[in-house]
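sanity check this:
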Amino acid sequence: MPKNTTVGFTKADGRNLPVVNDETLNKFLEENLDAEPELRHVKVARSCRSTYFLKAVGFVEVRRDGDICYVKGKVTPEHRVRSPSYSVTCSIHELENKVLEAKCLDCVASEGVCKHVVAFIAWLRWKSEEVAPTSKECYWKKARLSDVGTKVKFVEVATMKRKAPEKSPPIDLDQGEAMYNQPSSSNQNCRSAENSKHPNPEQKEGFFNFLVSKLKENQSNALLLKQVSETTSYSLFHLMIAFKKTELPHNAPKFLKFCRSLMNMKECELIYERTKEQAQCAEWNDMRFGRVTASILWAASRCLTPDGSLANQIAGASSIPDTPAMKRGRELEPDVLANVGRRYNGKVQKRGIKLHPEIPIFGASPDGILKNKVVEVKCPSTYERFKEYFSKDMTEPAPVYKAQVMLQLLMCKKMKGLFCVAEPSFKTTGHVTVVEVALDTIFLKDIMLKALKFWKDNIYPRLYNAIS
């Protein structure tokens, strides 16, 4: 830890800290929430907890250059408290009440704004509003959090006994009301200082709503969003939370019955419309979590590995890497859909994920709907891969893709679908092979029953155990 201040800097105390108010902090978060990946998650809320930053920040020093105040400090990591502290620096325009620059010099996120920077700015806001103008408390000292494990090696049981709370003196309600109706200026200042130290429920709710709105704007997959509006969500995560609160026997069949009792077609249709941006929509990703979707139906019906990559993918423990083939598909899909639309004299309508109350653990997201048909698009990059999408006689999709289209037909209540595979030379030739597929309930039922068994045996236990 440093023993001397940086050249040109002085030790910080209650008299020389810059003023950082709620507006300054909120503006700083708003500007950086859009740019920094680490701040798009719940870490920003954890870093803003007073129980953390009041103990984590130490060795604070300041320097002023005109209207600009430069502040440096050390921030102790939240978990590895014995590790070296992180050096954080920020510059604040005192007339404009604006954070011009803030960065952490030591962590891997030093190119941008990390959680240590957020904790430091939150500490400045707290201290600049907490102290009186004449306060001489020096902040050039070691952070309390960094002392953990260095002094007290053990605690005797006797010292852990909770002290009885002190009894407050009786209050004269009449006198108290009179004092409230005729407040002195000193009383007002005391209440103002107290309110700044302890935000009221409205301030807490306002900050929480601000944070949630920014996470939603950035289409974040932060776990915080999974806790919001859980009573109205058809996400299996939220349905499982609600299920575990019931007195029903906790098993897979009862959970499925519970989901059927809560879900309705009207809300499923609204989700179908709201999630038409698919992968770009956070709700679309939430609805897929824990469900057997059309694209993996065939794999789920054949899988014999209880804790392999497929189970991890369904349960959200792993993600599918973005490959060049997937990127090609995203780039060509709009052109292929337009090509198919012209061929069938119509416009392909984008839709989201389709759910159904009677089969709550299944979901399907066709690439589009054309009149009374579902449309599924594939864009292979080689002719060898192109052939793998079809049966040997090229009259129907290969089983894995046939199962995908069949579930889409069932969920969307359509009798026919268009399986469209763009040729590798599509960019220059515009050629698309289209195979019409009719709903085959016998083929589909067998696959869905096997996939359902896989879900009950391997996915349900994971979802259930994930909720404490």
